[in-house]
Amino acid sequence: MLIEFSVANFRSIRERQTFSLVKAKGDELIKSNAFTAHAATDYQLLRSAAIYGPNAGGKSNFLIAMKTMQRIVLESAANYQRGDKLKVTPFRLSEATIEEPSEFEITFIVDQVRYQYGFTATAERICEEWLLAYPKGRVQRWLGREWNKKNKHYDWLLGNSLAGERQLWQKSTRDNALFLSTAVQLNSAQLQPVYDWFKTALRMTGSNGWNPEFSVLLCEKNEKTQVMAFLHAADLHIDDIVIEKKPFDIEELPNDMPVHLKEMIASDLKDKKVIDIKTVHKNDEGSPVIFDFEDESDGTQKLFAFAGPWIDSLNKGHVLFIDELHDNLHPKLVQFLVQLFHSSETNPKNAQLVFTTHETSILNQEIFRRDQIWFCEKNQQQATVIYPLTDFSPRKGRENLELSYLSGRYGALPYIRALRKQA
Length: 423
Description:
Strand content: 25-35%
Number of helices: 11
Strand order of the largest sheet: 2-1-6-7-8-9-10
CATH topology of the largest domain: Rossmann fold
CATH superfamily of the largest domain: P-loop containing nucleotide triphosphate hydrolases
Low-confidence stretches: none
Mean pLDDT: 92
Helix content: 25-40%
Distance between the termini: 57 Å
CATH architecture of the largest domain: 3-Layer(aba) Sandwich
Radius of gyration: 24 Å
């Protein structure tokens, strides 16, 4: 369960920006849109949040920051070699920040324990790393690590509450790798839940959505009925999904593709099966008619690809970050997807959804609490700032949020100028 995420000096984000899923004051939609996360100290958290803002305002960069943190946690120890560059990009429009590290920090709950984990990094090294745990409501500092520029080494703090081969993990941690990732790779059972949250609980996708493979996997298992129920609830009029796996056929490659490239692809795929998805509709006499998946609309294809991750996340209580959820989807379908998270019946494990969108028809107090709406825009220094709707104290149940946003009250709108003919 996600509590908050902060990032600084990354891409278009200069100053530290903090995004929170902690419930603010107000009891509207509390039974559907909020829940209690049980830890030593209970937290009232939100089941979803929507982020609005203009194109090029930095919404995608905010999600990329989360993805970058996830990737460094999962890959820095296992996939990087000594000297490999970390894929972090500082804010480049200021001489004061371009040589400084990017910062990432996240607070979340796993198995009723709250963790606060973060690090700073340049392309060359991890500069700082820290981990605090609250297993009984009291803080335990498990890890502190900081690069000492003057002496060219790391200063370490490994807390007494951190069990295991601490000195071995410390010695094995490269400059471009995280201690957390290294220790888990070397069998730290205590740190495994923190690592696993990034690996399994945090699910992310860009504006192109997911590919359909995970939904296909569910269709091949007992969960196909759930996928079909999802599609029927979305009013897609698909009566069945047929999955076929067939050997790769080189003749299906484009005729104008170079022969050597065809042979290379055929060699790579010769022992693999190609997934062929078919949809089944019924004609006016009730007889089944089979269509190629590619014949379906872009929105139908996207929704089918969403079905697997959506169902799995709701069943397991994952945290989903999605860029441009509205893309190729009708506003009612966007509302449908969001409200699956706003129901204890469809979301019994308190999964959380965070998404960026331009779809303003759902920007109303019948769907969202006021603390679930966030905005993202660039300031005069061309740096991204992220802020909640609650900063404006909108009237509960009365203010028209869509109209107020589009009229400019909350900012985060594109500034459109007249196109003037050049002399």
